[in-house]
Every structure is written in structure tokens, then in C-alpha cells.
Amino acid sequence: MKSSSSHSPCVPKPSEIFSGFFFAFVSSLATASLLEQSASRNTYDYIIVGGGTTGLVIANRLSEKLDTVLVVEAGDSVYSNSNVTDTGAYGKALGTAIDWQYTTIPQEYGNNEVQTLHAAKAVGGTSTINGMSYTRAEAVQINSWEKAGNPGWTWDNLFPYYMRSEKYEIPDAKRINGGASYNPEYHGFTGPLKVGYPSQQAINGFASALNESYQAMGVPYSTDVNGGKMRGFNVYPKTVDAATDIREDAARAYYWPFSRPNLYLKANSTANRLLWAAHPNLQGNFVATAIEVTAVDGKHYAAGSLRTPPLLELSGIGNPSILQNYGITTKVPLPGVGENLIDQTNNGLTFSMIPGEKYTGESGYAAYPNVTDIFGSAASSLASSIFSDLPSYASRVAAQNNNASTASALLSLFKLQHSLIFDSQVPIAEIVHYPYDGSFGSQFWSTLPFARGNIHIASADLSVPANINPNYFMLEYDIQSQIGIARFMRKLFSMESLAKIAGSESWPGTRAVPANTDDATWTKWLKQNYSANYHVLSTAIMLPRAMGGVVSHRLKVYGTANVRVVDASIFPFQLCGHLMSTLYAVAERASDLINEDSEI
């Protein structure tokens, strides 16, 4: 790939610009332009900022026709990077040159800690460094997107796109012996994305001990968590090529197998800002005419849920008061840009193994308990107390988020979330288990925190990182649920089946957090020992504009004629499952929406 000189304009035709990181800025300019590109072309029907999970899906689908498509990606190929390809190497790429390692501001409600948010700088995006978990969402969660004001965003409408993206690889007898199971009605078998189980699937007694112990706690076994009901213990599939035992990322699925003369990739380049026509069109919407691109020099940030808002703000789309602070002319006043940031908090407990036992192989053990599983008979009183607190939650978040969404609008969203938790009984926790170094480790997080934060530029200088503030533990439910999960975990390991193979709790241990201790002690320990969960979303939220929305249900940025966002930043709520599978499905559906609109 040729590198470009600094500040080169990339121009689309009045097609579209997308963003993806989780973000694919699709701009359909009549001809979108860029600087220099490997094919010496600088005008395109579509320009996609971010060659990641969603960006490459859209690039693939839009280039199936004769339209010219350009993908601008800050990273390079990681096709032969063993830290990426090795299915047993999760975590080895974190902190390396392909990890952006975003950092938050000190967290006021989270022990004043600065947290690191991992995201990949690579062709394939964060699908190249994540945990490969292929777990979707509860059907009612996707249905809540429509209830929030986004027509057409339902489970029934999205489910075919989960299927279209997937090439499920049926587990063989060895993998089934290791716990692999599935329902064929929930999976696609002809899509680009390979999903299955690694060849080194662990085969030992840990999975059965976990399953028996969860059932003793009232949590059922789930044959397959990908059919819209997630509650239960499951040995989940991953994005792996079962034949080669290599990670299946977005590039391997949607880019490398295809050679199309109309699909272009500009790697090692970052989009700085969108450039605009001098005047709005007849409908009063601004038309993006080009993208300014710079060769990556190590200073700039990549596209994604954490890049979409800064890119919009630097392009003049956002809260006018924020833009004015940095001398940026407002093109479209959209106060919701950068607001409503949601992430989860991650903690873990560790138990020793009985001496002499060995557990090898790759595990994929997860449980999804609901609020009644975690809190038992106390769930009803918790529901009442949290519901009475919702107006206060909404007011506090509105104040923190620059009133981009009114307290009334936030209250309507919080009531939907409360109903998901307490009426629909969606899982409120994910608990991941893995044996390592003579111990049984775990990670757990509250799946649906109420806290919302923000991300905004800190300068018009592209080399200055944005301010990221997730507001971890800002609201009482968020810490209450984390405490409940920790107590549940302790009880789980006292069940007969796990007690036979596990020894004492080594982290935090009963010296640090005594048995039957109070909430205050748990709160202190959890806040001192949490990490970010890297499931950041909602920063360019899909909602009606009057509610603080940034994009419409057609994924178009309000006030623009040809700019769309397709990434996790548009999700209105957190999901119980990992984001990746839903991102693939959303991008598949987005490509159809774009093609539909181009035919009008």
C-alpha cells in the first residue's frame, strides 16, 4: 500500500460515508475523494472509515455491485500475526503495537481509577484481538430498540442477518465431548464468518462440575445461547476456523477471500475530518464531499465507538458549546454526539484446585443468570427500590451528559431497561470461567448498568486524545448488581460438584473480604479491583433526534445527506451477549438499508 502525505482529501461521489470500529462512516457523496490510494484513484461511490468488524462487512456487501468502495484503516494487515491468529493466545495482543490502549479520565465513582480501553489498530479491527466469543443477545433486548423509537429494529428483523453472516461449523465428536452443543435452527451455514469450537477444546470434568453446580443454584443448562434466550450455563462457540484452528476475524471473513477491482483499502491511514459542500442541499442537510486523511504517525486514533464522536465533532457535528471551545464551526448541532457512553465493569474471583488435578485445553464456559438467580426472593424489593430511583438516575445522567438527552427522555429509556431486567428477566450477569496455573479463574460483569458517561474532543489538535468518562459505578444499581454477582459466585463454589475439585478462595480471599460481610466491604474491594470491560457503545446513539439521538433508524446522521454510522456507538442499550455477533448482523442489515436508499 502506498502511504499518503499529510492532510489528503478523499472524495466520494454523492454516495455515502460510513464509520465503523465498531464504526463504518458510510458516505455516499456523488463522488467522495481521498488523497492517494494504492490504485491511484481518489473518487469513490462509498468511503468507509474503519476497516474493522462492521466496516469490512459493509465494504464487502456494497462492492458486490459495480459501486467503487474505499476503506480507510489506521492499521495494517495482521494476517500472519500469531498474537492474533492463535486461538489460545487471547490477551497476547493487548498492550502491543496493534492496541490503541485508550485511557479514561480518573473515575469519580470508581475509586478515581484510570482505566484502559483496548481496541485494535488492524485490518479487521477489534475482531482481531477480542475473546472471539460468539454470543448474541436476548430477543427482547433487540425489540427494545424499536420500543425506544427505532422502527424496524426487532429481533425478528435482525435474526436473518445473524444467519446470513454466519458459517457455523458443526462440532465433531471430540468437541462435543468437550461440551460443544448447538441448535441448527439458530445458525447459518453459508455465510462468510466461520463460527465453531477450537481443536484444543478442553475435555475435563470442570464443565460438568460447573453445570451441576449452576443447576444446584437454579440456573439451567443452555444447549445454545444464540436463539434469543440466553439464561443458563453454556459452552459457547467462538469465531474460529475449526479446520485450521485460526481466529476468524472480519478481514479473514469479509476481505481477504475477495478480490474485487472496485474494492479499495487504504491502510496505515487515519481519517481526520469530513469536508462539506459550501451550502446545504434543498432539504437543508449538509453534504459531505471529502474526507481528510493522514498517514498514521503513531499520534492519531483509529475509527470506532471511541472514535466516531471525535471524528464527528472535528467535522462540525456535535454540541455547539463544545465545538466553540475549540474554534470549530458548527455544521449540524447534535448535542447527543459523544454522550450516553455505556461500558461494563469487570471483576473476578479465583479458587485453588485440589492438588494433583490438571486441566488443559481451551475453555469457553459462561453462565448468564438473571436477577432472580442472583438475588432470589430479594429481587422483588430490589425492583421496587430501583424503579423509585429511576427519576433520580435520569436527572443525574442528564446533568452529567450536558443535557443532550432530557431527564424525561432518559427516564423512558431507563424504564425500558428496568423492564428488561425485572419483567423480562434477561440475564443481569455474565460469568466466564477458566482453569489456569493450578487455579479456577473467573471474570464477571453486570450486563446492564444504568450509568452513562461521555467522550468528547479535548482540542482541535488531532494529536490530543479525547476525554473519555464512562462514569463507572455512578448509580447504585450498578454496584449492587456487582456485589450480588460476587456473593453468588462464592455460593456457587460451595456447591458439592465444584467443592470436590476446588479448594479455598484465593482472590480476594476471606481475609480481604470476610464471609457474609456487608455491602460496604464488598463495594470497597470491587471498586479497588475492577477493570473496564471494553464493551463501549451508545456514543452516537440511534434514537429520535428529539431524544438526543445522533442517527436515525436508517443509520443516517441527522442533518446530513450522506453520512451514516454503523458500529456499536449506535446501540441504544447494552446487550447480555458479547457485541461482535450483533455487530456483524447490524452491518449486514445496514448494507441492505443503504442499497435500498440508493435505489430511491
Count of helices?
17
| Number of beta strands | 27
Q: Give the end-to-end Cα distance, rounded to a whole number of Å.
A: 36 Å
Outline type:
globular
State the helical fraction. Answer: 25-40%
What can be said about the biggest beta sheet? 8 strands, mixed
Low-confidence stretches: 1-7, 20-25, 29-40, 297-303
Task: Return the structural class.
Answer: alpha+beta
Domain Glucose-methanol-choline oxidoreductase N-terminal: 120-143, 304-318
Binding site for FAD: 53-54, 126
InterPro entries: FAD/NAD-bd_sf (IPR036188), Glucose_Oxidase_domain_2 (IPR027424), GMC_OxRdtase (IPR012132), GMC_OxRdtase_N (IPR000172), GMC_OxRtase_C (IPR007867)
Cofactor: FAD
What can you see in these coordinates?
The protein has 600 residues and is α+β, with helices and mostly antiparallel strands. Helix content is 28%, strand content 20%. Strands 1, 2, 3, 4, 12, 13, 14 and 27 form an 8-stranded mixed sheet that branches. Strands 9, 18, 19, 20, 21, 22, 25 and 26 form an 8-stranded antiparallel sheet that branches. It has a 3-stranded antiparallel sheet with strand order 17-23-24. Helix 5 links the parallel strand 7 (166-168) and strand 8 (193-195). Helix 1 runs parallel beside helix 17. It is globular, with a radius of gyration of 23 Å. It starts with 7 loop residues before the first strand and ends with a helix. Residues 1-7, 20-25, 29-40 and 297-303 have low confidence and may be disordered.
